[in-house]
From TrEMBL:
Family classification: Belongs to the Glu/Leu/Phe/Val dehydrogenases family.
GO molecular function: oxidoreductase activity
Protein name, as recorded: Glutamate dehydrogenase
Highest taxon, organism lineage: Bacteria
InterPro entries: Aminoacid_DH-like_N_sf, Glu/Leu/Phe/Val/Trp_DH, Glu/Leu/Phe/Val/Trp_DH_C, Glu/Leu/Phe/Val/Trp_DH_dimer, Glu/Leu/Phe/Val_DH_AS, Glu_DH, NAD(P)-bd_dom_sf, NAD_bind_Glu_DH
Keywords of the record: Oxidoreductase
Domain spans labelled Glutamate/phenylalanine/leucine/valine/L-tryptophan dehydrogenase C-terminal: 195-426
Length: 428
């Protein structure tokens, strides 16, 4: 019989700020502005459901590891819950709760009929074989078979997961229920019901909202420079699409370090290099290595944090030189940095608006799966761009109306939509 090992305790949130507290402090400000009544406030402030699962997985050496996984359903007032699954060693229940709530607000901002959810497993996928990841994904799906469903809760990729994991999830769920259910998950490979345009959707939304913001600031894309933190799916697509619009990308970074080129980095070359070198930019000759901590405070007009939470804090916000921050990541700015950024007059396109292009095209994928009809790339792009532009304008007008920063305006738009719907639907 295989020997059993006890998986280590979840990683603590360590010295980073608690994303749940960051989310709640913005929520509280927006609730105050809206004059939200106590009943609605109490319904929206906490997740509807938090599921913790233990997943025993036979590892390649024959031993069994028990992984801890989560699925948090924040809210389903607008529709079935929607949100990605994160595989990372720093996954923490409070983080998943914040990410689930952000999904509720994100879907409400772009006006798509979903509630919010998020999942995660504490694991290090970079040290696991494909077989181990597959068995863990199938175990997680089976453990959550009564939570997931095309009209209940619809997962998608997030950090550490992609089309491959979504394919396993779809297959396991379908087998368990005795029918093929493509609409149970989005971000699938194209051949099995994925949508054209889904891969680049989040980065594209970042580009569209950055362009809308530049216009409000009276700046032309061809006249500005940018730094992009994170060169995964979101960061690399945001960089390539901004570059195509004429923005000079002076800095990019990934797990291996940060890289600077005063004349602008050739992003297509950087992506080709990354793809040929194990997904890392290390050794890329088209830019000079720089201190990764300096990227966020470098001399650029636009900053795109597209990596992890809480990278812009009260410690570095004072030194930011950019005029515009477009948040590709979820929660890259901790709440303690907000007043400093506002004081400096920096415009922020907040995460729940800037990165909502991903879930928007996830929604299109789900609609196509339900219709059994595939849309063209033009249909996807044109509709997604319109949704992003409309959402940007709505948030911008709200910020003007209440004289509040874009971030709080996005929460106001989102909470107002959910609260109004709740009033019609009613409680128990
Ligand atoms: N994980 C992505 C996000 O944070 C996508 C979620 C989805 O497509 O459901 O927005």
């Amino acid at each position: 019989m295989a020997a059993h090992t006890v998986y280590k305790e979840p990683a603590p949130l360590m010295d980073r700020e608690n994303p749940l507290e960051s989310m709640m402090s913005r929520f509280n400000i927006a609730a105050e502005i809206l004059g939200l009544d106590d009943e609605t406030y109490n319904v929206l402030k906490a997740p509807d459901k938090q599921v913790i699962v233990n997943i025993p997985v036979t590892m390649d050496d024959g031993k069994i590891h028990v992984f801890e996984g989560y699925r948090v359903i924040h809210n389903t007032i607008l529709g079935p819950s929607k949100g990605g699954i994160r595989y990372d060693k720093n996954v923490h229940l409070d983080e998943v709760k914040a990410l689930a709530a952000w999904m509720t607000w994100k879907c409400a901002v772009v006006d798509i009929p979903y509630g919010g959810a998020k999942g995660g497993i504490i694991c290090d996928p970079t040290t696991m074989s494909a077989g181990e990841i597959e068995r863990m994904t199938r175990g997680y799906t089976l453990a959550l078979k009564d939570i997931f469903g095309p009209d209940r809760d619809i997962p998608a990729p997030d950090m550490g997961t992609g089309p491959r994991e979504m394919a396993w999830l779809m297959d396991e769920f379908s087998k368990t229920n005795g029918m093929t259910s493509p609409a149970v998950v989005t971000g699938k490979p194209l051949v099995m019901g994925g949508s054209l345009g889904r891969t680049e959707a989040t980065g594209r939304g970042v580009m569209v909202s950055a362009l809308a913001a530049l216009k409000k600031l009276g700046l032309k894309p061809t006249e500005v420079s940018a730094a992009v933190q994170g060169f995964g799916n979101v960061g690399s697509w945001a960089a390539v699409l901004l570059h195509q619009q004429g923005v000079k990308i002076k800095a990019v970074s990934d797990i291996s370090g940060a890289y600077w080129n005063e004349d602008g980095i050739n992003i297509d070359e950087a992506i080709a290099y990354k793809n040929a070198h194990n997904g890392r930019l290390e050794g890329f000759s088209g830019a000079t290595p720089m201190n990764p901590d300096d990227l966020l405070t470098s001399a650029v007009d636009v900053l795109v944090p597209a990596a992890v939470e809480d990278v812009i804090t009260e410690h570095n916000a004072h030194d930011i030189k950019a005029k515009l921050i477009v948040e590709g990541a979820n929660g890259p700015t901790s709440a303690s940095a907000d007043p400093i950024i506002n004081e400096k007059g920096i415009m922020v396109v907040p995460d729940i608006l800037a990165n909502s292009g991903g879930v928007t095209v996830s929604y299109f994928e789900w609609v196509q799966n339900k219709q059994g009809f595939k849309w063209t790339l033009e249909m996807v792009t044109e509709r997604a761009d319109r949704i992003m532009s409309d959402a940007f304008e709505k948030v911008y007008q709200t910020s003007q109306k209440y004289k509040i920063p874009m971030r709080i305006a996005a929460y106001v738009v989102a909470i107002d939509k959910v609260a109004q719907t709740y009033k019609y639907r009613g409680g128990f």
